[in-house]
Each structure stands twice: as C-alpha cells, then as structure tokens.
Amino acid sequence: MIGTNNIGQTKPPPEPAASAVAGIEAIVKEIHKKSAATKILLLGVFPRGEKADHPLRATVKEINEAAAKLDDGGKTVKVLDIGGKFLQPDGSILKEVMPDFLHLSEKGYQIWADAIKDPLAELLK
C-alpha cells in the first residue's frame, strides 16, 4: 500500500508522484540491503476515487508506471498492478468493493487475495 497515503494528503499538500516513487524505491533498496535474497511482490497503488476521472487516478497511474521499472522478472522484484480488478468496465469503483472509494471491503480483500495468490506462489518457488 506504499504510495497512496503520500498522494492523498490535503494538509500539507499532497506529494507528487515522483516522491511516492522515490519512497517505493527506497523501501525496496532497504529490504534488499537487509536481506539480499528476499523476493518482493510489489503491488501497484490501488485506484481511488469513485469515478475514472478522479484527479488522483492519473497520479496513481504515474506512480505505477514508474514503479513497474523495478520489476526484474521476479528474480528479486515482481511488480503486479491489480488495480483494474477493482474497477467496473467504465472505470468506476463500487461501494461494495471500496465503501469510501479508498479502503477495501471484505469483497475487495477477496479480490486482492485472489489476484496475488498465483503470482505469490510463483515467487516462493
């Protein structure tokens, strides 16, 4: 869930996407510094805001595109953007998935679990 709190703050003003990306990169680097053999499943920042045109959706996209460059084919980092699984065909989010269009419901957590099950198992091989 790295990144979403960076861009969602209103006071002080939200951080730019580049700041969230720098934080993601620093965390990945720190994990590997402490445990070089650790494999990371790095998820993209989840969508937020009810509609596809919510202003933070573009920032989330920018973060996820930059973070995707950390993927090394799963040798040490596998980047997985599952955000689309929370969206309707028109890009909206249902309240039954994210009641406040940010935090997941039980149904949202199940979508998350189902989406990472196989990629996580693959990393653990």
Please explain how this structure is put together.
With 125 residues, the chain is mainly α. The chain has a single domain (4-123), classed as 3-Layer(aba) Sandwich (Rossmann fold). It is built from four helices and two strands, in the order H-H-E-H-E-H. It has helices spanning 4-8, 17-34, 55-67, 106-123, and strands at 40-43, 77-80. Strands 1-2 form a two-stranded parallel sheet. Helix 2 (17-34) runs parallel beside helix 3. The longest helix has 18 residues, at 17-34. The radius of gyration is 15 Å and the shape is globular. The model has no long low-confidence stretch (mean pLDDT 93).
List keywords for this structure.
globular, mainly alpha, 43% helix, single chain, Rossmann fold, 125 residues
- SS-based structural class? mainly alpha
Tell me roughly what share of residues is in helical segments.
40-55%
Average pLDDT score: 93
| CATH homologous superfamily grouping | SGNH hydrolase
Number of helices: 4
Order of helices and strands: HHEHEH
Rounded to an integer, what's the Rg over CA atoms? 15 Å
* CATH architecture assignment name: 3-Layer(aba) Sandwich
The level 1 CATH classification is Alpha Beta
Strand order of the largest sheet: 1-2
Query: Would you identify the regions where 5 or more consecutive residues have pLDDT less than 50?
Result: none
Here the CATH topology equals Rossmann fold
- Summarize the main sheet: 2 strands, parallel
How many discrete domains? 1
Strand content: 5-15%
DSSP strand count: 2
Distance from first to last alpha carbon: 24 Å
From the spread of the alpha carbons, the general shape counts as globular
